[in-house]
Amino acid sequence: MATKRIGILTSGGDCAGLNAALRAVVHRAIRNYGWRVFGIRDGSMGLMERPLDFVEFDLSLVTGDMLRLGGTILGTINKGDPFHYPMPDGTFRDRSSEFVEGYRELGIEALVVIGGDGSMRILNQLCRQGGIPMVGIPKTIDNDVAHTDYAIGFSTALDVAGEAIDRLAPTAASHHRVMILEVMGRDVGHIAINAGVAGGADVILIPELPYTLEGIANKIADVRAEGRNHALLVVAEGCRTETGESITKIQSGGEARYGGIGQYLAARLTDLVDAETRVTVLGHVQRGGVPSMRDRVIASAFGVHAVDLISAGRLGRVVAWQHGQVVDVPITDVANITRAVDPFGTLAQTARGLGIYIGEMAS
Ligand code: F6P
């Protein structure tokens, strides 16, 4: 029987733990099944380039150092949807057939896609169009992939955000300030609420819960009444203004990204709470760095299970982490579905129980 050939790619924003997942896939595929593994460079681009852009992995390329390495050695993209590919002249072209042709040219029999919910949707569509067997591995610091308690990258991002609060707290206390930390998360508040609870924030704002400036000011007044003249506020980048506008910036490359809600709040709160405010925007430091131990463990388990799924012919599935176990779910249950913070869930109730202001329940 001919040796099976599989491909693997990373798609969407990078995060810590991607290389650990690549390593696990290569180890399992080569050691256990004797397959050949081809790493496709820059997400879907590697199959659209001519010549194709890929590397064949062998075990010497996936040493233990991969566990400690942030980012993705394959490269990635978080724009350039092959169905709606931006051309230099400002127009868009459907390049999906080039991806499918590239897959055929490489002669692989299945594809492992490491991506978030958006990448899963696009890759799933591409694979269906081309009859390409695919399995998915969820990654994103936002932790918003459905049906998994953890996506690769979240744990490291949370550690970074938590450490940032630990580092801001002494300045808040020494200068009697309100320190505002803006964290990433796109449309969800998993990083914010987890880091805020872990770091002892007084106020945590997440996109899932509306807030009022008055509510924040009241909380800060309560803190003062309790004898503390400083406060910590964590805000998720995707939070809207009180009147419902999201704050975005056009980045080089022309795409809008969240950013600026921390400054907005600082400008409004300074007079309202009669305190000096300072804003820290954590940004991409949450994505890089040495992966946390949890991310390495989850990525390794995901990689091994993804290969086992291919071996078992259980395709069109995404691996997931549920109650301390690696499981798998249909990709259609995950693609483009966002897992938000549950306003009545454990984290939100814990925050409320600790007296943290997390906004108001929508009436
Ligand atoms: O989805 C991951 C993420 O880091 C978000 O938290 C953030 O809003 C976005 O990507 C930033 O994207 P970029 O790297 O394109 O600025």
From TrEMBL:
Keywords: ATP-binding, Cytoplasm, Glycolysis, Kinase, Magnesium, Metal-binding, Nucleotide-binding, Transferase. Mg(2+) binds at D117. The record marks G118 as: Important for substrate specificity. Pathway: Carbohydrate degradation; glycolysis; D-glyceraldehyde 3-phosphate and glycerone phosphate from D-glucose: step 3/4. PROSITE patterns: PHOSPHOFRUCTOKINASE (PS00433). Substrate binds at T140, I141, D142, R177, M184, G185, R186, E237, R278, H284, V285, Q286, R287. Its main location: cytoplasm. It holds the Pfam family PFK. Its EC number is 2.7.1.11. GO terms for molecular function: 6-phosphofructokinase activity; AMP binding; ATP binding; diphosphate-fructose-6-phosphate 1-phosphotransferase activity; fructose-6-phosphate binding; identical protein binding; metal ion binding; monosaccharide binding. Residues 5-310 form the Phosphofructokinase domain. Coiled coil: none annotated. Its cofactor is Mg(2+). One of its GO terms (biological process) is canonical glycolysis. SUPFAM superfamilies: Phosphofructokinase. One of its GO terms (cellular component) is 6-phosphofructokinase complex. ATP binds at G13, K79, G80, G116, D117, G118, S119. The keyword ATP-binding applies. InterPro entries: ATP_PFK, ATP_PFK_prok-type, Phosphofructokinase_CS, Phosphofructokinase_dom, Phosphofructokinase_III, PKF_sf. Belongs to the phosphofructokinase type A (PFKA) family. Mixed-substrate PFK group III subfamily. Homodimer or homotetramer. HAMAP family: Phosphofructokinase_III. Catalyzes the phosphorylation of D-fructose 6-phosphate to fructose 1,6-bisphosphate by ATP, the first committing step of glycolysis. This is ATP-dependent 6-phosphofructokinase. It comes from Magnetospirillum fulvum MGU-K5. The lineage of its organism: Bacteria, Pseudomonadati, Pseudomonadota, Alphaproteobacteria, Rhodospirillales.
